[in-house]
Amino acid sequence: MIVDCALYEQGHRERSLTLDDVDLVRAEEPDGFIWIGLHEPTPAEFEQVEAEFGLHELAVEDAISAHQRPKLEVYDDTLFIVLKTAVYIDETEAVELGEIQLFIGKGFIVIVRHGQATGLRGVRSRLELEPDTLGQGPVAVLHAVLDAVVDDYEPVMDGIEDDIGEVELEVFGEAHTNPAERIYKLKREVLEMRQATVPLVDPLDRLVAEEIPLGEGMAEYFRDVHDHLLRIVDRINTDNDLLTSALEANLAQISVRQNEDMRKISAWVAIGVVPTVVGAIYGMNFDHMPELGWEYGYPLVLAVTAVGCLLLYRMFRRIGWL
C-alpha cells in the first residue's frame, strides 16, 4: 500500500504524486527529489516502483519478503539499507519488531515498511517543518529515519530493564518464587534486540567514515546516531549479563532450598526413629520383659522415648536443620 508519494524541491513539499506521475516529474524537475512511502506492498504494487527507479532485483526481493537482518548494500548507483524497528508492549512484556527498507538514489528515496512497530508519518511531518534540513535531499530523510528508529530503542530498553528489576526482586525476595520462565523470556527479548541493533553498527560505521558519499557535512549527523546506537548495544550486553546472573542466582537458591528441605526431612525422620524402634520392640510381644511387672515401667519407657526425641530436636535446631 502506498502511504504517501510527493515531490520535494529546495526543502519544500511541492505536490503529492501518483506512481503514474513519477516518470514525467523526474524528467521535468531534475533538481527535486521524490519521497515514496509504502507499507507491506504486494509484488504487483512494488513492480511499478521497481520499473520507475530501476531498482536492483535482489534488493526488491528483500524488500517484498522482509525478514532481513540490518545491513547496507550498494547496487550500482542505488543505496539499499535495512533497519529493524522495535516497540515494547507493556501488557505482555514483549518486544514487537518491524522492518524498514530504504532505497536511496539520485533524486529519490523509497521507504518500505513492514509491521506496526514504528510509523514514519511523524518523521515526514517533522522534516517538512525543517526546509533547511530537508533541502539536503534524500540523505536528510535517511538520517531522520535512522535517528527515529534508534531513538525508539530507548523506551524498549527502559521497559526491559524495569522487568529485569522486578525479576531481581523475585529472585532475592522472601516469597521464594521461581521466576525462571520469566527470566528466559526476558533473555529472548534481549536477544531479539541484539539481533536488531548489533548488525546496524557496521552500516553506521561506513556512513560515519564516509565510505559512501552522501553529502558534505552529513558524517557528523550520522556520528550522533552511531554513538546513540553504541550506548543501546552496551545496555543490551549489560542486561544480558544481569539476566544470566539472575538465572544463576535463582538456580542456586532453588538448590539451597532443596538442600534445606532435605535436611528438615532427614531431621524429622531421625526424630521419628526413636519411637519407631521402641514401638517395634514392644510389638514383638515378648513374655518376659523386665518392666512388665513394674508399676512405672511403661511410663518410664514413654518418658525416655520423649526425652530422646526432645534431645534430637534440640540438636537439629542448634545446627540449623530445623
Describe the fold and architecture.
- The protein has 322 residues and is α+β, with helices and mostly antiparallel strands.
- Helix content is 60%, strand content 17%.
- The chain has two domains: 2-253, Beta Polymerase, domain 2 (2-Layer Sandwich); 256-318, Magnesium transport protein CorA, transmembrane region (Methane Monooxygenase Hydroxylase, Chain G, domain 1, Up-down Bundle).
- It has helices at residues 19-28, 43-53, 57-65, 121-128, 131-134, 138-172, 180-208, 219-282, 297-318; strands at residues 2-9, 12-16, 33-39, 71-75, 78-89, 94-105, 108-114.
- Strands 2-1-3-7-6-5-4 form a seven-stranded mixed β-sheet, with helices on both faces.
- A hairpin with a 2-residue loop joins strand 1 (2-9) and strand 2 (12-16).
- It is rod-shaped and about 125 Å long.
Task: Based on the model shown, name its key terms.
single chain; 322 residues; alpha+beta; Beta Polymerase, domain 2; Methane Monooxygenase Hydroxylase, Chain G, domain 1; 9 helices; 7 strands; 60% helix; 17% strand; rod-shaped
